[in-house]
Amino acid sequence: MPVFQETAHSSRDLRVRRSRARPLPRLSxxxxxxxSNGHDGDEKYEVVVIGAGPAGLFLTxxxxxxxxxxxxxxxxxxxxxxxxxxxxxxxxxxxxxxxTLGLHHEILDEGCHMSxxxxxxxxxxxxxxxxTAFVPDVVVPARYKHxxxxxxxxxxxxLEEDFHAYSPDRSIFRSTGFVGFTLDASTDPEFPVRIxxxxxxxxxxxxxxxxxxxxxxxxxxxxxxKVRRSMGLQLHGDTTDHIWGVVDFVIDTNFPDxxxxxxxxxxxxxxxxxxxxxxxxxxxxxxxxxxIKDVIPAAEEGETLDEKARSSKRRAAITLESILExxxxxxxxxxxxxxxxxxxxxxxxxQIGQRMTHKSTLKDENGVERVFLVGDAxxxxxxxxxxxxxxxxxxxxxxAWKLAHTLHGLSxxxxxxxxxxxxxxxxxxxxTFEHERLTVARQLIEFDSKFSSMFSGQIGxxxxxxxxxxxxxxxxxxxxxxxxxxxxxEYAPSIIVDQVSDPETIAHVDAISFVKKDAYxxxxxxxxxxxxxxxxxxxxxxxxxxxxxxxxxxGRYRILVFTTDDLVDRQKVTTHKAETSISAQALETICRxxxxxxxxxxxxxxxLHPFHTRDFEWDQMPDCLKDFAEMTFHGPTGPxxxxxxxxxxxxxxxxxxxxxxxxxxxxxxxxxxxxxxxxFDNCLVRVDV
Amino acid sequence: MPVFQETAHSSRDLRVRRSRARPLPRLSxxxxxxxSNGHDGDEKYEVVVIGAGPAGLFLTxxxxxxxxxxxxxxxxxxxxxxxxxxxxxxxxxxxxxxxTLGLHHEILDEGCHMSxxxxxxxxxxxxxxxxTAFVPDVVVPARYKHxxxxxxxxxxxxLEEDFHAYSPDRSIFRSTGFVGFTLDASTDPEFPVRIxxxxxxxxxxxxxxxxxxxxxxxxxxxxxxKVRRSMGLQLHGDTTDHIWGVVDFVIDTNFPDxxxxxxxxxxxxxxxxxxxxxxxxxxxxxxxxxxIKDVIPAAEEGETLDEKARSSKRRAAITLESILExxxxxxxxxxxxxxxxxxxxxxxxxQIGQRMTHKSTLKDENGVERVFLVGDAxxxxxxxxxxxxxxxxxxxxxxAWKLAHTLHGLSxxxxxxxxxxxxxxxxxxxxTFEHERLTVARQLIEFDSKFSSMFSGQIGxxxxxxxxxxxxxxxxxxxxxxxxxxxxxEYAPSIIVDQVSDPETIAHVDAISFVKKDAYxxxxxxxxxxxxxxxxxxxxxxxxxxxxxxxxxxGRYRILVFTTDDLVDRQKVTTHKAETSISAQALETICRxxxxxxxxxxxxxxxLHPFHTRDFEWDQMPDCLKDFAEMTFHGPTGPxxxxxxxxxxxxxxxxxxxxxxxxxxxxxxxxxxxxxxxxFDNCLVRVDV
Lengths: 689, 689
Known about the structure:
The structure is a homodimer.
Chain A: E1 43-50, H1 54-68, E2 72-75, E3 89-90, H2 92-99, H3 105-110, E4 112-114, E5 116-122, E6 129-136, E7 147-149, H4 152-164, E8 172-173, E9 176-183, E10 193-199, E11 208-219, H5 226-230, E12 236-249, E13 251-253, E14 261-266, E15 269-278, E16 284-291, H6 307-316, H7 320-331, E17 336-338, E18 346-356, E19 361-363, E20 369-373, E21 379-380, H8 388-407, H9 416-419, H10 432-456, H11 470-479, H12 481-485, H13 503-506, H14 509-512, H15 517-521, E22 535-538, E23 544-546, E24 557-562, H16 582-594, E25 603-608, H17 623-629, E26 633-635, E27 654-658, E28 664-668, H18 676-683
Parallel strand pairs in A: 1-2, 1-11, 2-8, 5-14, 11-20, 24-25, 25-26
Antiparallel strand pairs in A: 3-7, 4-7, 5-6, 9-10, 10-11, 12-16, 12-18, 13-17, 14-15, 15-16, 18-21, 19-20, 22-23, 22-26, 24-27, 27-28
Helix pairs in contact in A: 1-4, 1-8, 8-10
């Protein structure tokens, strides 16, 4: 029978609480933040975010986690979170990012996993449609091999709930509208962005206009962004002629694939089926995208000038009933109906369009970006490829750490010579945001344009201009997997993405001669692409772990070392022979010269080894390995080499710098470990060792 | 550009919230519950739980989830949750149960996974200890192949947080001590348990005595249980001579296996290493159990009567320093020390003891159990096998659904003849609690006695009485895996566990002749044992799923059908030939005759198929399959047969009733599906169809 004699010690209650990410170190002065009744009248925040949709909330959450929780405000004109409709799909890459923040569990548990896509086409033998293929939904390697659908409002709630663990104050202000901003460094050079907001009252009181000041303003306020308009920017691009209706409801059907994502092309039009999560009633939701045809007569030839007006008219004529009727025609010979006893959850009609701004930042007179656009505020797509919410949140993911590093004084100042230059070449870490994300937006808009036309086109129909054979359609679908999964993003070279990589170093012998984009999509290391997850076995405790779990989104850089088999000195124990091992030398360089040269706790070390046996001990390896990477030192889980996945030769190894967002910065040979310093000099300020 | 036309509908905000388990249906009258100022003066609750440790909180949470949230109170005399020390290990079975409640994520993410055990023994070639083997921590099949260690207070916080999602009121009352109870049916036959509590004030106010009344009282108030004493029960058994110290701290050591569970036997004593979770400082905790020797001189021969007193004295002489000093001797030639800059987290000394009560319930004059004991209140073990917190919570897990079914009027009344009988044979579902859990407690105490002696004994030492060779030790360790994993529990036959199973039905051909306990531990179906988890592929959406995810702990029974390959009628589509298929017949019987005979929403259907191809359609199978089990119909994920794991022949199939706690109730042949009614008549009241 236990008779305990307990001792009491401090910091114990931390054992009980939910874990929190530790904030980034701060070298810059903590600003003196004044709230509503500050001495000079204006509220001040380091960052003000306009819009509490997925992009705005995600940015706010990330900044709070990185350490800005006390000087952060997010304003949204709506009184609460979204209740129905809009976006519903999360890509594999978004799920990967969410898992580095611990935000994935509810989404994976409760969301609908789309493992497969079923393709349906006009039957060659009978009336109506028939299934022509099952295809995996995600064909690229990824931590999660499926997309997840779940209501956008729920994702917003998850983000906001997590945010509250980091911000003791109330920092998300709803019923607060953005009016406009000016850059005004003269009256307050530290907080040069002067923002007008309207605090909306209830029906009985009128809005109250207020001024808040910020170092940086972010417009996450959607397709009709007022921040964008205040910047003097416009969305450019076209709204096409394709009209689609979208309905979320509990379906009653004998269509056999209703729980799978389906691309249905019938002789009477197209439908996309998006299976959705189970709702509180116990039913499963279904989303249908229904192509709308011939609501009003098609235009005569030459009537092109009126096309947009005509489409708008057509759209206005669309009703829930007409969408469902058209759906029924496409599904024939199968029946669809609203499940008896249930209501339609949400419906809408829209025209497919791809539009974007040509800039997404506004610089002050010193060339410092003061205003940023993320999400729909700077690019809108069709919902077909399931991109919208994902790309928007990834904008925020790209911006947040750069902004936090800048505000915390961790990023180096630009070279004097480049400072005032209007060139597009990034000279600071913060500069790279627009450089990287506008390129992604452009690529995605091109892809989406192709992809959504394809869905609107009539497959196999000879007359259709956009006509594609079923095989062509499948090919576009597979080729697009890099985009649709979010895993194919590749950031262009810049100060934080190395331009030239030595193929001798990074590529597997077989791959050197023909490293194709496919190989990079499969995991071969390439600056600008995300580090692929694999399962590894940790040396210290023999646990199987996801490599990504050592690359959590805490705002830190990591050095990933692929050691060679000379890491273990079989003769060692008494004689120190570290100087003969190239792996040991690289580790010594990294631990003694690279990591300590930058602010404490900004670069972490992860080390991989190629040994399939376990008959080696800590004291056969350099001391710094255990000191710096005791719990982040891993090997393979089975007989296959996992170095191969990354295009690294076991006989040569590699050192890799990984950015805080999980993208590869630079790949170097073990012998060249010292040159990591050249890379980090672009990313982080040096400190006195 | 989307131009949405939204419609508004009710119940939409449910889409945003975290999902909640739906409560059990209730056939009995909802009692009129009065709180503090009720008309007759006493607070009333259907269930009162004393003690808010893991057992009490888990019980309270389960009852709230099952639907009793408004008539439930939990009292604890302490002002808050535990801050350090005590239990720290969760077994694979406990993790399985937690995952059926969605309570596993934080524990798996933040806890320490013990994948392996390292055995260390006196070196044969040099001074000090050497590693003799690595052994997997868990050798039985289970959803999680490892134990997890994490601070008990954190588990309590997780349970309490989840509880608050189900109980809008404050139902966990701290600083409230239990005084005593009486059974008093005369003044209030519906709430016969009269409970005296002391509401403790702060230092300035004196406790306030109060009476609360309940239908049932549960003592989850630990080894010193006052509820147990009020029942007139005692713990019986022995406190042995073995003394151990336990310390939680951040260790600084060159011992190579410090992140693994270790059993160290040196010439100077034994130590168990339990690796622990990472704490907020970034360090990893370590727990050491250190065997204490010769603190005061051993007893002379014949001095047996004074043994306990002697041990207590010895225990009192133990200090943190003496524990660490002894630890250092055992670890030699390796060094251990408290990590510089950190404090010891917690330490204690205890004597190993195995004690239990001979009863765990108290019946009223009608033979209805009114008072129950769970956890340490009725059995205490050594911490060596990591049992304590697990067995305690599993007591609550066993009790909660039986109590909820009884209070909701779902369980049938006992046969008149047996009602007043004092026999130990259970005649109601509620009766089976004591029957099942006291047996488990007895078995575990026997096992723990053997297991912990073994740890205290000197391995390989010829003189030691308990001396075991290293191989003998390893054997006990492996044989004990059923106990230590929690997966080997087998409930004895009763009205809810079928006694005789037809081996022809359940066992695989090869297994029929010699189905050993091992086979059951490996998953072969056996009434009284838990259903093993496997990965299956859902037919409707091709998702890979854990079978356990269809057996969530919502208090429902399930019928699990292993169909044969005649389920699919290859000729069908136009002609209905269901009457020729034994699988289809069994499904029809279950869906038309069994499930509707009992209260709505108390029995769910899960169906498995043996097909490795996917070329069959819903319309080739009986309609009731899609109606009752569209999203719970699964097949194998690869070429191997998964029926084999369960000992079911693909050519014969089986129907299985699974209890709400995941244990097999009865296994029948497909042809005998109708006889499931005999089983469910013991479990649930019949309703008019």
